[in-house]
Design a protein that fits this description.
Layout (H helix, E strand, L loop, with lengths): L1 H20 L11 H19 L3 H8 L5 H19 L2 H6 L3 H16 L1 H7 L5 H29 L5 H30 L3 H18 L20 H8 L1 H31 L4 H11 L1 H17 L1 H11 L13 H33 L5 H29 L2 H14 L12 H15 L1
Helix pairs in contact: 2-9, 2-10, 3-4, 4-8, 4-12, 4-17, 6-8, 6-10, 8-17, 9-13, 9-14, 9-16, 11-17, 12-17, 12-18, 13-16, 14-15, 14-16, 15-16, 17-18
Length: 440
C-alpha cells in the first residue's frame, strides 16, 4: 500500500512539474504567453485521457467481467446519449464566452470521474455506474470541443492557425505514445481504476491552465433568435459543399476506426491472451507514427498545398484498418498490430492539422461553436451507432471478422472526399496565404 501510494504521488508530481515547466510560449510568434497556457491545458488533459485510454472497457472486463457486447455498449451508449443531450447546446454556447464553458466542462469531468475509483475502492462499482459516468463525460467533452474551437479562433491570428493545430497534434500523438503503456503499467500495478483518477486530475490541471489565460476574450457574437435554432450548426455545414463532404467522410471513417477499438481490446486481452501492458505498449508504439505525421504535416503542406494533402492522406489513412482482422498470438501478432496502426496513424496525423485549420477557416465567425458542436454530435452519434453495430456483428461472427469488414468499408469512404476543384476554390487563396505566412 505504501509503495502504491508513493507511485501515485510520484507520478502526480512528475505530471504537475512537467506541466508547469513546459514553455511553448515562443513556438508561435505573436501569440506568446496565452497560447502557452492553452497549450499546457491541452497537454494536461490529453495526457490524462491517454493514460486512461480504454480505462472503462478494462474496468468492465477485468473488474465487472462483462461480455464483448457490453464492452461495446459502454462506448456506444455513452456517445449516443451524450450527443442527444448536447443537441440544444450549440446556440446556447455560441452566445456565451467560451473560456468559462471550457473550465466548467473540465471541472465537471473531474467530479464525475472521481466517483469511479471511490466506488471501486468501496466494492460498490457497477456496470450502470460506469455507464452513467461515461455519458456525463461524453456530454462535457462535446461542450469543451465546441467552445475550445471558437476560443482558439479568437485567440490565435488566422495566419498561425495551422501552426497552432500542428502543436496540438504533436501533443496528441506524444500523449498517445506515452499514455497507454504507462496506463497499462499502472493498471497492472494499482488496479483498473487508477488511471481514471489521474484522468480526472488532468482535467483540473486543464481548467487551471485555461484560467491563467489573460488576453481578453472577444465578446460572443450576438445570436438573433431566428439564428439560434438547434439545427443552425447543421444548416451552416450543409450550405458549404466542402464542409458537407468532409463531415460525411470524417464521420464514417472515424466511426469505423473507433468501432473496432473495443473489439481489438477484447480480442487482444480476452481471446489472444495479451496483458493490458502489452496492449498499451502496442498502442503506444503505434502512436509514434502520429508524432512522425504531425512533424511532416506542415512541411508537406508547404510543398504540395492543403488540397493535395487532404485528398492524398485522406485516401492513404483508409487502407490499413482491414489488417487488424488478421492478427494472431505471440510476438508476430503484436508486431502486426503495431505495424498496421503505426501506418494508419501516421497518415491520420498528417491529415488532421490541415483538416482542422481548413474547417476553422471556412466556419463563419458567428457560427463556429454551433458548427463544431453539430460536427461533434454527428461524429459521436456515428461512432455510437457503428460501435454498437459492430458489437452485434462480432457476437454473430467474431471480433476478427467484424474488424476485417470494417477495414473493407473504410477504403470506400474515400469516395466522399471533396474531389472536385470547385469545392476548394474559396479556400485555396486563403490556404496559400496562411502557409506562406507560417513558413516565414
Amino acid at each position: 500500500m505504501h509503495r502504491a501510494g508513493a507511485a501515485r504521488h510520484g507520478l502526480a508530481c512528475f505530471l504537475i512539474n512537467s506541466w508547469c515547466a513546459a514553455r511553448p510560449d515562443g513556438w508561435i510568434t505573436g501569440v506568446g504567453r496565452d497560447f502557452g497556457w492553452l497549450w499546457r491545458a491541452y497537454t494536461a488533459s490529453t495526457l490524462g485521457t491517454y493514460l486512461a485510454l480504454d480505462a472503462f472497457p478494462l474496468i468492465a472486463i477485468l473488474a465487472l467481467h462483462v461480455s464483448a457486447a457490453q464492452v461495446s455498449l459502454i462506448a456506444a451508449a455513452s456517445l449516443a446519449i451524450g450527443a442527444l443531450l448536447a443537441v440544444p447546446l450549440g446556440p446556447w454556447m455560441e452566445s456565451r464566452r467560451k473560456r468559462p464553458l471550457m473550465i466548467s466542462a473540465d471541472v465537471l469531468r473531474f467530479a464525475v470521474l472521481a466517483t469511479v475509483p471511490a466506488a471501486y475502492a468501496l466494492h460498490a462499482l457497477t456496470y450502470y455506474h460506469l455507464l452513467a459516468v461515461a455519458i456525463v463525460v461524453a456530454l462535457a467533452d462535446i461542450v469543451f470541443v465546441g467552445a475550445s474551437g471558437a476560443h482558439l479562433k479568437g485567440l490565435v491570428p488566422p495566419e498561425h492557425l495551422l501552426t497552432a493545430n500542428g502543436r496540438f497534434e504533436n501533443v496528441l500523438w506524444i500523449s498517445a505514445a506515452v499514455g497507454p503503456p504507462l496506463g497499462g503499467g499502472l493498471v497492472g500495478a494499482l488496479g483498473p481504476a487508477a488511471t481514471t483518477l489521474l484522468n480526472g486530475v488532468s482535467f483540473l490541471l486543464s481548467a487551471l491552465g485555461i484560467r491563467m489565460i489573460k488576453a481578453p476574450e472577444p465578446p460572443p457574437p450576438a445570436v438573433r433568435e431566428h439564428k439560434g435554432r438547434v439545427t443552425e450548426g447543421w444548416r451552416a455545414i450543409f450550405r458549404d459543399t466542402w464542409l458537407r463532404l468532409m463531415l460525411a467522410n470524417g464521420v464514417l471513417a472515424n466511426s469505423l476506426i473507433m468501432a473496432t477499438g473495443p473489439l481489438l481490446l477484447y480480442r487482444m486481452v480476452h481471446e489472444l491472451g495479451f496483458t493490458p501492458l502489452a496492449y498499451g505498449l502496442a498502442l503506444g508504439i503505434s502512436c509514434l507514427g502520429g508524432l512522425l505525421g504531425a512533424r511532416l504535416s506542415q512541411p508537406l503542406t508547404r510543398r504540395f498545398g492543403q488540397r493535395a494533402i487532404l485528398l492524398g492522406f485522406g485516401v492513404a489513412r483508409t487502407v490499413w484498418l482491414m489488417g487488424l482482422g488478421f492478427i494472431g498470438t505471440g510476438a508476430a501478432g503484436l508486431v502486426m498490430v503495431i505495424a498496421v496502426q503505426f501506418s494508419m496513424i501516421t497518415c491520420i496525423a498528417v491529415f488532421n492539422p490541415v483538416f482542422a485549420t481548413c474547417r476553422l477557416r471556412r466556419a463563419p465567425d458567428d457560427k463556429v461553436a454551433r458548427i463544431l458542436t453539430a460536427w461533434t454530435i454527428t461524429s459521436r452519434t456515428g461512432i455510437a451507432v457503428l460501435t454498437a453495430g459492430w458489437g452485434v456483428l462480432a457476437a454473430f461472427t467474431s471480433a476478427s471478422a467484424a474488424m476485417a469488414i470494417a477495414g473493407v468499408l473504410m477504403v470506400l469512404t474515400s469516395v466522399l472526399l471533396p474531389w472536385r476543384r470547385q469545392n476548394w476554390d474559396s479556400a485555396d487563396s486563403a490556404s496559400a496565404s496562411e502557409v506562406t505566412t507560417a513558413a516565414t
